[in-house]
TrEMBL record:
Family named by the database record: Belongs to the binding-protein-dependent transport system permease family.
Locations listed in the record: Cell membrane
Entry GO CC: plasma membrane
Ranges for domain ABC transmembrane type-1: 102-318
Gene3D superfamilies for the chain: MetI-like
Protein name, entry field: Putative ABC-type sugar transport system, permease component
Annotated PROSITE patterns: ABC_TM1
GO biological process, one term: transmembrane transport
Length: 333
């Protein structure tokens, strides 16, 4: 009786427990502090993102929306924009030089991009195996990618392939008298493509990274089965580096569509045409000519949006077709 009375007294003296919902556990002592810490971290993350968001709005999205508006106007930089609807686009499709710029750019993209990727992959296959002086060779092959797009290299390239220059004189020794490549409409574009292929260093480095991820055991097993070098390359190397190949192809295509500086320098900045017979009239140059030489900013804005739509279409086709030739690790699981 005394023990029972003592326990009842202890229960009555104990502080009341906080009421909780049925089936719910009471909050841990540090739960509220953890939530406050999480909110502070989230706020800090948004603060760090603020400069990037401001840059996107003011330097990218804002100018894009302005150029979209100008594409439907007649604007000369000095007068107020005048709304003309789809007149710029209609005039564009009736412009023979616009079609010429499209043709020249497509030739540059369809010929230069595959050759550049082939050169990059070929050199990467040579450099992936350990050899003496490997670091020097990698740096030497990568260097043109850093300086190839500069104006100075374009001037040097023009001097090499101009009339009576070193290439012209060297070919004359073998009885091939072409004349200056830059001044010949048939050879001006191949000269520009050669300059592009020479800058294969960036995709080469990416190919090297992909080749190093291919397991050596696959090649050893293929050799034991009697597979030759070409069979190993076709059945092992290409499927294993297909994501890297897709990445390089996408980047190089987008970059090739925007070619400008090298074409202008090769043809000569003082001319009013795109090289001999408009053979170097790439899309970017004609856009610049219409916008800043002819002061037709509305027409140039319409051209820019057509270029963006074209690049977007090519990108969509690549992503749509990649399922048939790009193999990822999760697909094999």
């Amino acid at each position: 009786m005394t023990r029972t009375t003592t326990r009842a007294a202890e229960r009555s003296a104990a502080p009341p427990r906080p009421e909780t919902r049925k089936g719910a556990a009471p909050d841990a002592p540090g739960a509220a502090a953890g939530r406050r810490s999480g909110r502070r971290e989230t706020l800090a993350g948004y603060l760090f993102l603020t400069p990037w968001c401001i840059g996107i709005l003011l330097l990218t999205l804002g100018p894009m929306l302005v150029s979209l508006y100008l594409a439907f106007t007649d604007y000369t930089l000095f007068d107020s924009p005048r709304w003309v609807g789809f007149k710029n686009f209609q005039e564009m499709f009736e412009d023979d030089r616009w079609w010429t710029s499209v043709e020249v750019t497509l030739k540059y993209v369809l010929i230069g991009t595959p050759l550049k990727l082939l050169a990059a992959l070929g050199v990467a296959l040579l450099l992936v195996k350990p050899r003496k002086g490997q670091g020097f060779y990698r740096s030497a092959f990568y260097a043109p990618s850093l300086i190839g797009a500069s104006v100075s290299i374009g001037i040097v390239w023009r001097a090499i392939f101009n009339d009576d220059a070193i290439v012209d004189k060297s070919m004359s020794l073998f009885g091939w008298d072409v004349g200056g490549w830059i001044g010949d409409p048939d050879w001006a574009l191949p000269t520009l493509i050669t300059l592009t292929v020479w800058q294969f260093g960036a995709p080469m480095v990416i190919f090297l990274a992909g080749l190093k991820q291919v397991p050596r055991e696959l090649y050893e097993a293929a050799e034991m089965d009697g597979a030759g070098a070409w069979r190993r390359f076709r059945s092992i190397t290409l499927p294993m580096i297909s994501p890297v190949l897709f990445f390089n192809l996408l980047l190089e295509l987008i970059h090739s569509f925007q070619v400008f500086t090298s074409a202008v320098v090769l043809a000569g900045s003082g001319t009013n045409t795109g090289g001999p017979g408009d053979s170097l009239l790439v899309y970017g140059w004609y856009l610049y000519e219409q916008g800043f030489r002819n002061l037709r900013m509305g027409y140039a804005a319409a051209m820019a949006w057509m270029l963006m739509l074209g690049i977007g279409l090519v990108t969509a086709v690549l992503f749509k077709t990649q399922r048939g030739w790009v193999h990822y690790e999760e697909d094999a699981r």
